[in-house]
Amino acid sequence: MTDEAGPWLVVGLGNPGREYAGNRHNVGFMVVELLAGRVGARFGRHKRAVAEVAEARLGFGGPKLVLVKPLTYMNLSGGPVAALAQFYKVPTTQVIAVHDELDIGFGQVRVKFGGGEGGHNGLRSMSKSLGTKDYARVRFGVGRPPGRQDPADYVLSDFGAAERKELDFLVDRAADVVESVIVKGVEPTQNLYHGS
């Protein structure tokens, strides 16, 4: 199904700007930044898309990675993603979206291929711009907001103090999951990570 030689587009979903950096909604940015650090790549502004991009290989002689942080704000993420998929000639089967997920408890990372967007505006924009829902998603659980807090306010707030103690470990785990999807595929990755 996948072309080993072809690049993978790994999209961290989030909002640009320092005021959003620690938000739950920006965990996708956190994961792709860690992945860039692992492979020694630096983000720079792309000429053809409103996004920051870092290019590298996963391991010696491994598949090419194009790590992406769209700079259009979450609701318009799809435009830059579609432009970059076209520019790098990446099939949607080799696109991975990394995003926060309200329907999964904090501390859990899940992966799936295709399916609905669960009300996530970044995914909705990606699916519309790519013309398909058939791409992989690495879903970082942030849990439901406490009490009657509006989910939109909740995801645009920073992780709590207790959560921040675990955050580095969980971002690291999510980066492992992304690498596993690229190297092993979605189903083997689900078998590896969903039980724990």
From TrEMBL:
EC code: 3.1.1.29
Pfam families hit by this protein: Pept_tRNA_hydro
The name this protein goes by in its record: Peptidyl-tRNA hydrolase
Residues binding tRNA, per UniProt: Y20, Y73, N75, N121
Major site of localization recorded for this protein: cytoplasm
Domain of life: Bacteria
Quaternary structure and partners: Monomer.
Upper taxonomic lineage: Bacteria, Bacillati, Actinomycetota, Actinomycetes, Micromonosporales
